[in-house]
Write a structure and sequence with these properties.
With 368 residues, the chain is an all-alpha fold. Among the domains are: 2-95, no CATH class; 187-275, no CATH class; 289-362, no CATH class. The protein has helices at 8-15, 37-51, 64-69, 76-79, 82-90, 124-137, 148-152, 157-162, 167-180, 187-201, 203-210, 213-227, 242-247, 251-257, 262-269, 289-292, 301-305, 308-324, 337-342, 346-351, 355-362, and strands spanning 92-95, 101-106. A two-stranded antiparallel ribbon has the order 1-2. Helix 6 packs across helix 9 (167-180), helix 10 crosses helix 11 and helix 18 crosses helix 21.
C-alpha cells in the first residue's frame, strides 16, 4: 500500500484502469482530492444523482448538512457555502471569441437556497439584485408597490427582518446607500470586487493565492484600510469580528488557515504585537476550558503544567493582576466585576466558568 500512498482508491484505479472509481466515496479519500477541480464537478454530479435532482430548481433543495453527510464537507473550505459551491460548478458561462469570460448565461439565485451567504444582505448590489428580481417575479411595475407578502412569499424573509420587517425600510436602504455612494463608486472597490468574484469562480486560483503567506499580511493591510484604521493601531483590531472578515473577502482565508479565528490570524501576520486572546469577542475552540483542560480536582500537577490552556489562563490572570496592581493571589478576594469589565476581560472569565473556576486552576491552593 505504501506504493499507492496508503490509498485504496489509487490501488484499485491501478488494478482496474477501465473502471471509474469515485474517490470521495472511500472512507479515507486520497490526499489532494479537492485540489483537482474536476473532482468538485464529479462530486456534485454524483450527489445530484443520488438525491434525484433532475432540474436546476432541484439544486435549491441542497443543504449544507446534506453535503456534509455525503463526504463533501471540505468543499466548504473552498467555496464557503452552498450557493457559491453550486453556482461556481453548475452556473453556466458564456465565452467570447478571444476566450475572455463574459456575464453568466445562467446564475443561481442565492436567496432561493436554504440560507444566503454570510453578509449577503449587507451589500447594496445584492439588495438591488433581489428587489429587481422580486419586482419582475411579482409582476409589478414599480418597487413602491412591494408589500410584506411579496417578500415573505419569495425568499425575502431574511432581508425583511434586517429592516424592521418593513418593505419601506428596505427600499429606503437602497436610496440612502446610493446617496452616500455606498459600494462600487471607487475604482479600488470595483477592482477588489472583481478579484473576489474571480476567487469565487476559480477556487483553485484562490487556494494558490492564499497558499502564499505574504498574501495573508497583504490582506490584513488592505482590510485595515477598508475598515478605516491604521494597520499598526493594534488595539483597534480587537473590535474586528469574523463577519467583518467575511464581508471583505477573508472567509476562505480564516476558515482554511486560522480555524475561523481573528486572533490566530493576527497573531500570525503581526507577530510583533503581543496579542491578548481574551480581548477578542471569540477565541479558538481549542483555547476554551471545556475542550482542552480537565477540571477534576484530582488532575495531576504534571498534567496541569503541560497544557496550553493553563498557560492561557495564567496569562489572563497575570494580565489582570498587572493592571490592578495586585501583589499576591490573596488580593483576588477583593476583585469587583466592574474592574474586569473595564479591562475588557469580563466575558472571557464568564466563558471559562467564572473567576472562581479560573482561579481554582491557576491557584489551586487559594480558597475563595
Amino acid at each position: 500500500m505504501a506504493h499507492y500512498n496508503n490509498s485504496v482508491f489509487a490501488l484499485l484505479s491501478s488494478i482496474y484502469p477501465d473502471s471509474e472509481f469515485l474517490p470521495f466515496l472511500f472512507h479515507s479519500p486520497p490526499k489532494g482530492l479537492w485540489d483537482n477541480k474536476d473532482n468538485h464537478s464529479k462530486y456534485l454530479n454524483y450527489l445530484g444523482g443520488k438525491l434525484g435532482f433532475k432540474t436546476r430548481e432541484d439544486w435549491y433543495k441542497l443543504t449544507r448538512r446534506t453535503v456534509k453527510e455525503n463526504g463533501g464537507n471540505e468543499l466548504f473550505q473552498i467555496y464557503g457555502d452552498v450557493y457559491h459551491l453550486v453556482n461556481a460548478l453548475l452556473g453556466e458561462r458564456e465565452v467570447d471569441g478571444d476566450g475572455k469570460r463574459k456575464e453568466r448565461a445562467f446564475s443561481f439565485l442565492p436567496w432561493k437556497f436554504e440560507a444566503v451567504p454570510s453578509g449577503f444582505w449587507d451589500r447594496l448590489e445584492n439588495r438591488k439584485w433581489y428587489i429587481d428580481w422580486l419586482k419582475v417575479e411579482s409582476k409589478l411595475l414599480s418597487e413602491k408597490e412591494l408589500q410584506r407578502k411579496h417578500f415573505m412569499d419569495n425568499h425575502g424573509r431574511g432581508l425583511l427582518s434586517k429592516y424592521n420587517d418593513s418593505p419601506q425600510d428596505v427600499l429606503l436602504s437602497l436610496n440612502h446607500a446610493e446617496k452616500k455612494g455606498e459600494e462600487g463608486t471607487h475604482g479600488k472597490e470595483r477592482e477588489g470586487k472583481k478579484k473576489e468574484v474571480e476567487f469565487q469562480e476559480d477556487p483553485l486560483l484562490r487556494k494558490k493565492h492564499w497558499g502564499d503567506d505574504k498574501n495573508h499580511r497583504a490582506f490584513a493591510l488592505s482590510f485595515a484600510e477598508k475598515m478605516g484604521f491604521s494597520w499598526n493601531d493594534f488595539p483597534k483590531w480587537y473590535n474586528v469580528t469574523m463577519q467583518d472578515f467575511y464581508e471583505h473577502g477573508g472567509r476562505y482565508l480564516l476558515v482554511r488557515y486560522y480555524r475561523q479565528s481573528p486572533y490566530l490570524f493576527l497573531k500570525s501576520v503581526f507577530p510583533e504585537f503581543s496579542w491578548q486572546p481574551w480581548l477578542f469577542p471569540r477565541i479558538p475552540k481549542s483555547h476554551t476550558l471545556s475542550s482542552n483542560l480537565e477540571t477534576d480536582a484530582n488532575i495531576s500537577d504534571s498534567d496541569r503544567n503541560s497544557t496550553d490552556k493553563l498557560k492561557l489562563l495564567r496569562e489572563a490572570v497575570k494580565f489582570v493582576e498587572g493592571k490592578c496592581g495586585f501583589k499576591s493571589a490573596e488580593e483576588w478576594r477583593r476583585i469587583a466585576p466592574s474592574q474586569l469589565k473595564a479591562l475588557g476581560i469580563e466575558s472571557f472569565f464568564a466563558r471559562e466558568g467564572g473567576v472562581g473556576k479560573v482561579l481554582s486552576i491557576v491557584y489551586p491552593e487559594l480558597r475563595l
